[in-house]
Design goal:
The chain is α+β, with helices and mostly antiparallel strands. 56% of the residues lie in helices and 21% in strands. It is rod-shaped.
Length: 292
């Protein structure tokens, strides 16, 4: 009984020791085995691995491609036009031992802080060597490649491999942005004023042409009306002359009746005539003939 009582704790301790000496490396990570802070083993393959309990510890690091957002920074290109650049980078831990020596117990946060400073410095240096037109054009893919290549050499000291660097946004500072908008607005207003002036000029030309056309049409119409009226008067006079030549006495009678109609038709007009006036020749004649 006493023997079994002693064996059970020993077995339990042995099981605990065996379990604490086994650890699993996931396929998405790699691990370092540390003994008193010194690297004694690097586990890069996924699966089971062993360590000495209580003496050794395991530190795990992500083996996938990681992403870091670079803090926005202002750069001054060759044409002194300041720009605010927002970028991000993708990286991977390449050398676990060197990475551990470079960042210590700080791990990935410390590495990303140092990597951010490297990327900011390289971005400012590369973009400061070209004009803003090159940065804002489609050719900036070559600029991103230059930033990546420059950052690779700097990041090797961290045991990190920089895979890619991308510029997410390239904008003007807020003050410059407002000034640019004001300048663009003034330019558009100037263009609108020019367009309105050209439109008014064209409208005046159209109105002048229309007025000229109206004057010409009215003049032509009046000329044709005068011609027609003159022809009508000539035809009327010809008819009168022909009628007078056919029967002069009847013509005189007709004209006298027309004169009586117009003079005696009524109204507020008054006529003072002598009774012996020739105007009343046909009225005084019993036969309706003019007195001789």
């Amino acid at each position: 009984m006493r023997k079994s009582t002693l064996i059970l704790p020993v077995v339990f301790v042995a099981i605990v020791a065996v379990l604490s000496s086994i650890f699993i490396v996931d396929e998405r990570e790699r691990a370092l085995v540390l003994q008193f802070g010194r690297v004694v083993a690097v586990k890069e393959e996924p699966g089971l691995a062993f360590k000495i309990p209580l003496i050794q510890e395991v530190v795990r690091y992500d083996d996938r491609i990681l992403s870091i957002d670079v803090q926005p920074l202002e750069v001054t290109p060759l044409d002194d036009r300041r720009l605010v650049v927002d970028a991000f980078a993708r990286y991977r831990i390449a050398d676990l031992e060197q990475f551990r020596q470079a960042v210590g117990v700080g791990g990935v946060p410390v590495a990303e802080d140092r990597l951010d400073r490297i990327l900011r410095a390289e971005t400012r240096e590369v973009l400061g060597s070209v004009s803003s037109r090159d940065i804002l054009s489609s050719d900036r893919a070559a600029l991103m490649l230059r930033i990546r290549n420059s950052a690779i050499a700097e990041a090797q000291a961290l045991g990190v491999n920089v895979i890619d660097v991308r510029l997410k946004a390239t904008d003007l500072p807020q003050a410059n942005l407002e000034a640019t908008f004001d300048r663009m607005k003034a330019e558009r207003e100037r263009e609108a004023t020019d367009e309105r002036a050209r439109g008014n000029e064209a409208a005046q030309r159209v109105r002048a042409q229309a007025d000229r056309t109206v004057v010409e049409l009215v003049s032509d119409a009046r000329r044709e009306a005068e011609i027609i009226r003159g022809e009508a008067d000539a035809e009327r006079n010809a008819i009168f002359a022909e009628a007078y030549g056919a029967d002069p006495e009847f013509f005189e009678f007709y004209r006298s009746l027309s004169a009586y109609e117009q003079a005696l038709g009524g109204g507020n007009s008054s006529m003072v005539l002598s009774p012996d006036s020739d105007f009343f020749n046909y009225l005084k004649s019993p036969t309706g003939q003019a007195a001789q």
